[in-house]
Amino acid sequence: MRYDKELYAKHLQGMVRFPTVSNADPEKVDWETFLGLHKYLEETYPLVHKTLTKEVFGKVGLLYHWKGTGKSGKLPLMLTAHQDVVPEGDHSMWKYPPYEGVIAEGCVWGRGSSDCKSNILAYMEALEGMIADGFVPDYDIYLGFGYNEEIMGGPGAAGTILVDLLKSRGVEIGLELDEGGGIDQQGGQYVAQIYPAEKGYADFEFSMKDPGGHSSQPGEHSSLGIIGKTACILEENVLPQRLTKPAIDQMKAMAPFMEGELAQLFKDPEANWEALKSILAQNRTYNAMTRTTTAVTMMKGSDQANILPERSWLVINNRLLTGDTIESLQAFYESIVPEGVEVKLLKGHNMPEVSSIESEEYKLLHSIVEKKYPGITMMPSLLLGGTDARYFSDICPTHSVYRFTGMRRFNSKSGGAHQVNERTDIDVLEDDVEFYVELFKAYGSAQ
């Protein structure tokens, strides 16, 4: 198969030009833009659309299926990604317009260029090239492209719709891959950071009602004053630090690349837990690895300075570890907030199942990256954010749901996901396509 990074860049440019922004309010989404992207994919990858069946699920989700020969006996391979992107923000802050897909300075620039239309590109380019070469899989292949991943679920989540559809057809998955992870360098050595787990998610609203009135005649506390006090209480009562298996595995994998005291402590996190706790709490990333986090993110009172608010509210975002649940969080919050403050779950889910790092599928991923990067270290890690991969644990009996791509991440040219000047280095596109080509070839023969 011939790899062509310039062609890949051109095709990614075309995808970026569709501003597929998701919104928690479906009425505010331009669904026609998503349909435009669908048509572009059909035109750009004719062999994929001729060979695989395609159907639309939910609003504008895409499900592709390639029925293999079945000779391998393997459960299907599932690759997922999301079509939607986050809002682009202030256009004046972008070096190049966010939806033109400008190719400059060795990168494709624009919203979605890295998160995560580059994943869609890699899957489709790999399949288009392999079909042209006459490849036929001995197992089934599924591609699933959601459309509201960036709003983190809730009613109408595309991931739920897709998994329910597959369940209704009796489909089980042998390996599921989604965004996240990739090839890094640490201390001059190659590292494959792979995420067998991701944290749960919850948005809670804290609100208080009050008669309101004119600001010239305030009471002792306004409702916003009480809500402000609530924010302080929440920040002063964070959930305790805990060690979980994903964090333990990650620290042990990181130990050889660390220096000083942490290098020794990470070798055995359980034995060194008391010494580690205070150190980890001072680092945002390590802190988030070892506790359910609480972040006060939104607050509102009245619409004008001289009006006492009749209802004030704040919203916090939690990222949950195993052992904490949405139900336990709500009970805890109700026990510590001031009287009269109502606690309401807006949306959320508990931490999904942690996938195996002993499975044949995990070992297969290791063998593929080892072939390209001899001596590479696999670094299982806990994803602090979220992906659509979380929905697939229920239909993956091999416990092989991972967030990983074959893309090089030690190149400083790429970056900016969810920020201005999001871009992807053209050189890494070829690596990602090659990874999926090797995966499609090897999966059917893996034991």
Written description of the protein model:
The chain has 447 residues and is α+β, with helices and mostly antiparallel strands. The chain has two domains: 5-184 and 353-443, Zn peptidases (Aminopeptidase); 201-349, Alpha-Beta Plaits, CATH 3.30.70. It contains 13 helices and 18 strands. The protein has helices at residues 5-16, 31-44, 46-51, 117-132, 158-168, 223-236, 245-254, 260-265, 273-281, 284-289, 326-336, 360-372, 426-443, and strands spanning 53-57, 61-66, 77-82, 103-104, 107-109, 141-146, 175-178, 182-186, 189-198, 201-209, 213-214, 293-300, 307-308, 311-319, 342-349, 377-383, 401-403, 423-425. It has a six-stranded mixed β-sheet with strand order 1-2-6-3-7-17. Strands 12-14-10-15 form a four-stranded antiparallel β-sheet, covered by helices on one side. Strands 4-5-18 form a three-stranded antiparallel β-sheet. A hairpin with a 3-residue loop joins strand 1 (53-57) and strand 2. The longest helix has 18 residues, at 426-443. The model has no long low-confidence stretch (mean pLDDT 95). Belongs to the peptidase M20A family. InterPro entries: ArgE/DapE_CS (IPR001261), Bact_exopeptidase_dim_dom (IPR036264), Pept_M20A (IPR047177), Peptidase_M20 (IPR002933), Peptidase_M20_dimer (IPR011650). It comes from uncultured Anaerotruncus sp.
